[in-house]
Specification:
single chain; alpha+beta; 4 strands; elongated
Length: 125
Amino acid sequence: MGKKIVFGLIAFAILSSITIVYIINTGISNNTNALNRTESDFTTENFTISEIWELQKTKRQKVEESYIFIKPQNEDFNLRFSDSDFFDKTENKEKTLSQIREGDTINVKVLKSQLENAREGGPLN
């Protein structure tokens, strides 16, 4: 019984170490990719808005996160503005929401790779 516990602890330590190294390496590579982006990595697309809604995550009656979602017509994905886009200021979010309406056409600058992945569909995209 004692050997199984020791073996389990050793296996847990090894798997935990591998997981931590993987997470750190993924973060580093994502940061490197973000720093190396150029204008050619982006594209500007026109989307017609079919729906707009806001999702708020609250905890103890306080809004912790707020997201504005825009559903483009004829697309299977949503565009999202997070509260970080508004610097945690409600007035900026309200101003943005007052300037866009369902049926409006908007120009959106997005990463080409993200747009391609979103249009591919599938459960992970």
